[in-house]
Design brief:
The complex is a heterodimer of chains A (about 90) and B (about 170). In chain A, about 15% of the residues lie in helices and about 15% in strands. Chain A has about 90 residues and is of the alpha+beta class. Chain A has two domains: about 40 residues, no CATH class; about 45 residues, no CATH class. In chain A, about 5% of the residues are buried. Chain B has a single domain, classed as HUPs (Rossmann fold, 3-Layer(aba) Sandwich). In chain B, α4 runs parallel beside α5. The chains are: A alpha+beta (about 90), B alpha/beta (about 170).
């Protein structure tokens, strides 16, 4: 039933307390993919996620608008220090 | 990992939207027992739960202070109409789940709903609470219903919240 599980992590130990539960779910529920995400609020630049269909290329400046699906994914050349840490 | 799953139901269709998820978890996670609970706020009479350590603190009105765990459990002879209805409802849901090979028990509690659910989970060593985000009071623009919200905030064990149909996406 849970084919894809999204797990937001912020690098803290507290956030990681979800991980044993994710493992349990993934083992028991025929999960195909577990996606770990870390969101940084300010980025120096990003590109549109390939195939995401979101025509927001070139929108710079950092704050990801909440109403918009998070179609952007950081590309390596755009990584700042904060993003590399994550 | 999830040996005991607690599932609060209030009789509404919205609350039942958690049930497919419960069944899935129960099948995949070696669950020993699924406990369906329904909470009624006012009752005509009750007794202390057998074996509960603090039978002395119960007061007569069906309301208690929020710091006490819900030690009361309805006994059949004290059942009023509302409680009997709740029990019949839980029995019906339990039958359906039993037919799928899941070990189910039912419980009618009395207390304020959120306190009862969280207290019961703690007292009986439940591993996870699975509930719908909205119940009897219907879908609303709020992310969670008031009971779901309270359970989420006050529970020390994991809570799996199932969005009830009618969810409006977006951050408000």
């Amino acid at each position: 039933m849970y084919k894809r599980i999204l797990v937001p992590l912020d690098g803290s130990k507290l956030a990681e307390c979800a991980l044993p539960h994710v493992e349990q779910l993934a083992n028991g529920c025929d999960t195909e993919e577990v996606i770990l995400v870390s969101v940084t609020e300010r980025v120096q630049g990003f590109r549109v996620l390939e195939g995401s269909g979101q025509p927001v290329a070139g929108w710079m400046g950092g704050w990801i608008q909440p109403s918009q699906p998070l179609g952007q994914r950081l590309v390596p050349e755009a990584f700042g220090k904060k993003e590399k840490q994550a | 990992m999830y040996k005991k799953i607690l599932v609060p139901l209030d009789g509404s269709k919205l609350a039942e939207s958690a049930l497919p998820h419960v069944e899935e978890l129960a099948k995949g996670c070696d669950t020993e027992e699924v406990i369906l609970v329904s909470v009624t706020e006012r009752v005509q009479g009750y007794r202390a739960v057998e074996g509960s350590a603090e039978p002395g603190i119960l007061s007569g009105g069906g309301w208690g202070s929020s710091i006490q765990p819900p030690l009361q459990r309805l006994v059949p002879e004290a059942f009023g109409k509302k409680e009997k209805q709740a029990q019949r409802y839980l029995d019906r849901v339990a039958e359906k789940m039993k037919a799928k090979g899941i070990n189910v028990s039912t419980e009618v509690l009395l207390w304020r709903p959120a306190e009862a659910i969280v207290g019961y989970a703690k007292q009986y060593g439940c591993d996870v609470i699975v509930m719908a985000s909205h119940g009897r009071s219907g879908p609303s623009r709020w992310a969670y219903g008031s009971v779901a919200d309270k359970v989420l905030r006050s529970s020390c064990i994991p809570v799996l919240m199932i969005r009830a149909p009618g969810c409006v996406p977006g951050i408000q």
